[in-house]
Amino acid sequence: PSPTMTIREIQNVSVTTQANIYFGDRCVSHALHLPDGTKKSVGVVFPTEQRFSTSQAEVMECVAGSCTYRLKDATDWRACSAGESFHVDANSHFDIRVNEPFHYICHYA
């Protein structure tokens, strides 16, 4: 099962104002930099099916909407909806299917 997360607001951050837009305008995100040096991104994935690659470990937290995802080497698709999250290993990838806008926070480990 996915861990449950409940972040609604992230305080005391600086935001990279230019959006990262990729997958043919199907994903839009902004980088957040926290005072302790950690980095997160917040964004929206619009309806699509894509593969995301990772260079570092990530926790993908669903803020609103839903998706199904499949981790590297997995055969099964799992659901993730608001309040849930999933972990992706560093130097890996995951496939994602989105049928409605999937609002997320990516926590980099």
The pLDDT mean sits at 92
What is the rounded Rg? 13 Å
Count of DSSP H/I helices? 0
- Relative helix content: under 10%
Beta strands, count: 11
Structural class: mainly beta
Shape: globular
Largest β-sheet summary: 7 strands, antiparallel
> Which percent range describes the beta-strand content?
over 45%
> Which consecutive residue ranges, at least 5 long each, have pLDDT under 50?
none
Distance separating the two termini: 19 Å
- N-to-C series of helices and strands: EEEEEEEEEEE
Keywords:
mainly beta; globular; four-stranded antiparallel beta sheet; 0% helix
Strand and helix map with partners:
Layout: E1 14-15, E2 20-22, E3 27-33, E4 39-45, E5 48-54, E6 58-64, E7 66-71, E8 78-81, E9 85-88, E10 92-98, E11 102-108
Antiparallel strand pairs: 1-3, 2-3, 3-4, 4-11, 5-10, 6-9, 6-11, 7-8, 7-10
Description:
- This protein has 109 residues and is an all-beta fold.
- It contains no helices and eleven strands.
- The chain has strands spanning 14-15, 20-22, 27-33, 39-45, 48-54, 58-64, 66-71, 78-81, 85-88, 92-98, 102-108.
- The strands form two sheets. Strands 1, 2, 3, 4, 6, 9 and 11 form a seven-stranded antiparallel β-sheet that branches. It has a four-stranded antiparallel β-sheet with strand order 5-10-7-8, with no helix packed on it.
- β2 (20-22) and β3 (27-33) form a beta hairpin.
- The protein is globular.
- The two termini are 19 Å apart.
- 17% of the residues are buried.
